[in-house]
Amino acid sequence: MNFDLDAIHQSAINIAKQGGAHTLKYFNKSFDVERKSDDSPVTVADRETESKMRDAISELFPDHGIVGEEFDDLNPDSPVQWILDPIDGTKSFIHGVPLYTTLIGVVVNGVPQVGIIYAPALDELCDAARNKGARLNGESCSVRSCDDLASASFMSTDCYTSVKFNYGDAFDTLVEKTRIHRTWGDAYGHMLVATGRADLMFDPILNIWDAAPLLTVMREAGGVFCDTEGNETIESGNGFSCSRELLPEVLQVFAENS
Question: Is the Cβ–Cβ distance between 96 and 28 less than 8 Å?
Fold first, then answer.
């Protein structure tokens, strides 16, 4: 079993770039859109990209596990699991909006170790590995200092999902308390926080492949990714990113509006 974290990290960067490059063959072009059982959209670009990423991982690390949005799990008992989302923000992708991302998270013995967020249409790649820091396009990056919601910029994917999943009051309170709110969402919103361009990003609903890289990226950027109860995990089904200084005030909003 290969546990060379540096090799896994560099391979994850390369595979995310390869996957992201494949999405660009379809971006801003005509293609069919299907609907999954939960009514979420999926395209040939999603499936082809994940397939290519899986092939690249299996060639380099045949005994590693793979979890992805579009296909069944591979090697589920492996202590090393690659968690993939070929196109996070498929709705943005479908409509020609460049704020979609290709995501990779690597978990070793249940602990997130590597996180990659790549925005192919913008050619922005944020990578992080445990105890190795975080980078944007190869340059060190970090969250910006913000300890007051009144000074914070707040990102979300849209204005309605929070209501649907019973976070409407908390969402409204955050909008009222923060300096500015924008819907630059999905994983790109979390990358904005990790790279010091935004202060808070909230997702009321997250699958494991949506969240997989976020904890590592945020920790290594000096911030925090956690659920609405303050648990630093990728498995709660919701999550937000912010600076550690801002964390208590954000958690208070969720506690008071639960």
Answer: yes
**Domain at 5-140, CATH class:** alpha beta
Give the phi and the psi of residue 228 in degrees, each rounded to 5: -70, -10
Domain boundaries, the chain: 5-140, 149-256
Q: Is this prediction's pTM over 0.85?
A: yes
DSSP 205-242: ---HHHHTTHHHHHHHTTEEEE-TTS---S-SS-EEEE
Q: pLDDT, tens digit, for every residue of 163-180?
A: 999 999 999 999 999 999
CATH number attached to the domain at 149-256? 3.40.190.80
Exposure letters 60-87 (e unless 16+ CB within 10 A, then b): ebeebbbbbbbeeebbeebebbbbbbbb
Nearest to 235 by CA among 214, 258, 256: 214
